[in-house]
Structure formats: C-alpha cells, structure tokens
C-alpha cells in the first residue's frame, strides 16, 4: 500500500512502493523467445535510516522550537549575527518561521499515526547491497542530438503487444509502450525497464516540439525544474535552468482546461515568488495552494534539523489550475474537488534525490482516468507521459532486481540481465 495514512493534514506515503508500481511482471523479448521475470526497484535506495549531522528525532520532531541561529553539532564555524544575513537569507528565515508550525505539528501527528500502523518504526529489512552507481550520460547525448533534424512523424511504438521495436529515434520522436506489463529494452547499448503504457520523449529543453505535436492534452502536469542555486553551481552535478527560461515551456499547449499544474520549488523565497507571481500568471494558471514534502528517516526523524540554516527537511510544491482568461467564457462546466492549502506529504526520500510520485495523493483532484505528464522527469511512471534530458535515468536495469519466474525452471537463482536479455546467474 503506497499511501500509509492520510487525514486533513496530509499523507504519509511509501515512496518505494510508489516507485515500484507496475514492475511486478517484467518481460524480455529476444528473437522469438520471451523471458518473464519478477522485477522490483532496489529497496536499499530508500533506506535513509539516520538523520544528518547527528540531530535526532528527539531534537527535531518531538522537542520544541530550537534556536535558529545555533550551528550544527560539532560545527566550529563562527555564528553569524542576524544583522549579517543577506536579504535572501532574511526572506528564507521569515518564510520558515511562517510555515514551521505547520511542518512541525503536522509531521509529528502524521508520523505518530504511521507508527501506530507499523510504519516508520526503524526496521531495516533491506539487503545490505551497494547502491546502484550507473553513470548517466543521457543529458550529454541530448546535447549532441540538438544538431539532428526533428522528425514530424508523430509517436513511435517502443513496445507493443508483440514485443519491442529495436530501431527507434529517441531524440526527436515521442516513444510509446502499449504493453500491459514492464518490458526490458536495449537502447543505445544499455538495458532499460519500461513500465506498462508509459510514453516519453528524451530531449533537450530546446527540442520539445515533438511533445507538442504528439497532440495530447493533459489533466495533470507536474514540473520538477532544475533550479539555479549556489550548491548546484559548485558541484556541477546537473545543469540548471534560469527561471526566466521556464516561461518558454509550452504548458498552455499541453494543458487541458482546468488542468492541475504542480511545480516543485526549492526553499528559496525568490523561486517561490517567481512561480506564484510570474510563471503561473504567464501560463494562465491560477494559484490554489502550497504543499510541503517532508523528508524523514525510516524511524520518522527529519532527515535534516528542522531549523537548520543550511538544508531544510522539506520542499515546496505550488499547485494551480490552468484557467486562461481568453477561454473562460467557453470553459466547460465541471465539478471540482477543492485543493486544500498547506498539506504535507511525508516520506522517506530516495538516496538518489528522486521526488516521490504524486500519482496517488493527487488522484482525488484529477480523477482516476486523468492524462498525466511530468516535465523534467528522470524516471517513467505507468500510464504517464514523461519528458526530460534524463528521462530514462532511473529506468536503467542497475536500479532493479530481476528474478526469473518459477515456470522458468532451468534458472532458479536470482540474477541480473546481460545486454542480450539473458540472465547471468549470481553466485
């Protein structure tokens, strides 16, 4: 069960179960032969069992307000006076103090409820296996593919009922899977697992035309932009995008009327103001609510001290509805579920910085048959359309465990896939 508990404050969700959906049965086609596997995302990716900087749940969840000017345990850096804070830091502090009671009280209540159901009890039942370390080169390939001509040929079948198509144009056409189960496919010399009925476009920000030409209108659009910040610039872990460039995203061409638009935002108030005051109005999206993703350990502790000056254990989501002024008079009449403000999504985060899937918590607001799109995605979801320059990153087989089904009696041990979809049995 992916949603462990929910009430008026929000939800506790199992991010591993949300990620693992749709992979129970996995098939691989080699010539005229088909192999079937049990497939699961590696659970050790979600085993965040301790808080950072040694701050425990006693200090951060069950205790009262801590001094926001106190440095981390063991830190010898000089304390800065409040007068030394720059304007951005002052804005961040004001924002944090405003939402702190919601985060603190809501998380405490939700975690307590989840613990009463046997969740967030600190059990560590995952294998002590090394974390996947596959080097993703997709963004670099997308950069090189910018020189290739775009093909106005609609979508292409990556996986159909008969098997998978080996010759596909990943960088200039939308790819579809029509299979009712997950499928292992080889793309660019690497094996990836495609969930059932997933659609995706692997491309650079400047080459989104095939997604628009695909012609679908979506009832839910989730965006996880690569926001600019100092730590990203220093680490160079991924390319960031200036806020002004986000206005170029073709959201109005992709959204159905009343589409729910959800944007992940960093904790910088300037980014939040930009989304609320510039980006959403530019698209014709009416702001409805701010939600918070609260990251906790497997024991229910905040992953960072709640009042840390450096990293907070929460991130913000801005929710709105696409309601352009020029079509209001022709807008279809529809019943609408109220989107409540300041709700919490509490989960154990992935060690690879994956955001939790919002599919289950947003279902009451968009309906079970909604067409869903994720922009700047790094993984696929069953039944969703996904776009990004690393859209297949977490679909690589190194992030999954595959076990032959029992009917394949000739192989009885757990194994891993080789490049020709045969199993290499682990000793």
* Helix and strand pattern: EEHEEHHHEEEEEEHEHHEHEEEHEEEEE
What is the rounded Rg? 22 Å
Number of strands: 20
Q: Largest sheet, if any?
A: 13 strands, mixed
Query: What general outline do the C-alpha atoms trace?
Result: globular
Write down the overall mean pLDDT: 83
Number of helices: 9
**Secondary structure category:** alpha/beta
Strands ordered across the widest β-sheet: 1-2-15-13-14-12-11-16-17-10-7-5-6
Explain what the structure shows.
The protein is α/β, with parallel strands linked by helices. The chain is built from 9 helices and 20 strands. The chain is globular and about 65 Å long. The model is unreliable at 54-60, 62-77, 232-236, 408-420 and 422-427 (pLDDT under 50).
């Amino acid at each position: 069960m992916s949603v462990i508990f929910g009430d008026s404050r929000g939800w506790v969700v199992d991010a591993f179960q949300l990620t693992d959906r749709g992979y129970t049965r996995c098939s691989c086609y080699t010539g005229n032969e088909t192999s079937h596997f049990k497939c699961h995302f590696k659970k050790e990716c979600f085993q965040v069992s301790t808080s950072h900087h040694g701050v425990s749940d006693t200090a951060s969840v069950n205790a009262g307000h801590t001094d926001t000017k106190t440095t981390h345990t063991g830190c010898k850096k000089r304390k800065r006076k409040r007068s030394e804070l720059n304007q951005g830091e002052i804005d961040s502090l004001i924002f944090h103090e405003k939402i702190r009671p919601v985060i603190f009280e809501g998380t405490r209540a939700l975690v307590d409820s989840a613990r009463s159901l046997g969740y967030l009890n600190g059990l560590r039942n995952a294998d002590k296996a090394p974390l996947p370390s596959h080097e993703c080169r997709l963004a670099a390939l997308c950069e090189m593919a910018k020189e290739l001509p775009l093909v106005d040929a609609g979508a292409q079948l990556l996986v159909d009922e008969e098997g998978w198509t080996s010759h596909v144009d990943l960088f200039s056409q939308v790819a579809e899977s029509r299979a009712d189960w997950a499928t292992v496919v080889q793309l660019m010399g690497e094996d990836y697992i495609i969930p059932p009925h997933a659609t995706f476009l692997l491309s650079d920000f400047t080459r989104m035309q095939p997604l628009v030409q695909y012609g679908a209108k979506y009832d839910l659009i989730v965006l996880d932009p690569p926001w600019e910040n100092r730590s990203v610039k220093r680490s160079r872990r991924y390319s960031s995008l200036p806020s002004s460039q986000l206005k170029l995203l073709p959201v109005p061409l992709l959204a159905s009327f009343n589409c729910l638009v959800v944007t992940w935002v960093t904790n910088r108030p300037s980014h939040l103001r930009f989304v609320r005051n510039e980006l959403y109005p530019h698209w014709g999206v009416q702001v409805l609510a701010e939600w918070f993703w609260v990251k906790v350990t497997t024991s229910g502790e905040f992953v960072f001290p709640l009042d840390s000056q450096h990293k907070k254990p929460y991130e913000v989501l801005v929710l709105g509805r696409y309601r352009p002024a020029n079509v209001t008079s022709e807008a279809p009449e529809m019943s609408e579920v109220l989107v409540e403000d300041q709700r919490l999504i509490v989960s154990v985060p992935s060690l690879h910085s994956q955001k939790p899937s919002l599919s289950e918590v947003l279902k009451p607001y968009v309906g079970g048959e909604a067409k869903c799109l994720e922009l700047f995605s790094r993984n696929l979801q069953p039944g969703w359309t996904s776009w990004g320059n690393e859209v297949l990153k977490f679909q690589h087989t190194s992030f999954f465990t595959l076990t032959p089904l029992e009917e394949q009696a000739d192989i009885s041990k757990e194994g891993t896939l080789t490049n020709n979809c045969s199993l290499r049995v682990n000793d």
